[in-house]
Amino acid sequence: MPIVIRQGTVRAISRGVGVVTSTYNTNTERNRNGYKIYRSVNGAPFKLLQLNHVTALGLQVYKDQGLNTLDSNYSYYITVTDSCGNEGAPSDIHTVVNVSVTAYNSSNTVTWNTYDGFTNWHYIIERYTSVNPSWVAVGGGIFNKLSTTWNDSDIICDVVYYYRIKTFDDD
Questions:
Q1: Residue 72 DSSP label
Q2: What's the pLDDT at 9?
Q3: Residue 167 to residues 35, 51, 57, 94: CA-CA distances in angstroms?
């Protein structure tokens, strides 16, 4: 009797300076053995990045470090493996959102590429400053999938601003 291996599910992908963090739920099949994480850089063919032997249930986190997240686009998918070496169907491909900021006299304009991955999703913009060194949601809350720009007019001179976009699965 063939063994059915369910598809892996990616919960979130976020980008930091030189780091992309993937968060995924573990497969609940009894004979699961681990996960294979694949990466594509700038649209090149996907390559196996890592094999994680994880049998515990729950949320798993993988950090891909030492990356050029400013100039390169990264896409990922995962598969689950069983104890016999079979590999399940790939998860959806998730592409990291790249953020850029243009500073003006009285505002910062934040722009980003459209996220590719979840079927139903939304964005949250977070800001970190040299005065308030913690990530805080800004922009009035949730942005829909058609949004790719936001103007931050709540800025102060001589303060350094950092922004990040978080993408969340609505399903």
A1: -
A2: 42
A3: 22, 25, 23, 10
Backbone torsion region of residue 145, taken as left when φ is above 0, otherwise alpha when ψ lies between -120 and 50, otherwise beta: alpha
Q: Is 162 left (phi over 0), alpha (psi -120 to 50) or beta?
A: beta
Between the alpha carbon of residue 36 and those of residues 56, 100, 125, the distances in Å are: 15, 31, 30
Average pLDDT, 10 consecutive residues per value, the chain (171 residues): 38 58 75 85 92 72 81 86 86 83 89 79 86 88 82 89 82 71
Three-state secondary-structure class, residue 110:
strand
Burial environment of residue 132 by CB neighbours within 10 A (0 to 12, 13 to 18, 19 or more): exposed
| Residue whose tokens read 């059915």 | 4
Q: What is the pTM of this model?
A: 0.70
Q: Token digits for 59?
A: 């949320």
Euclidean distance between CA atoms 45 and 171, whole angstroms? 28
Question: By C-alpha distance, which of 19, 58, 15 is closest to 35?
Answer: 58
Torsion sign over Cα 136, 109, 19, 141: positive
Residue for token digits 């590999």? 87
Q: Tell me, what amino acid is at 104?
A: Y
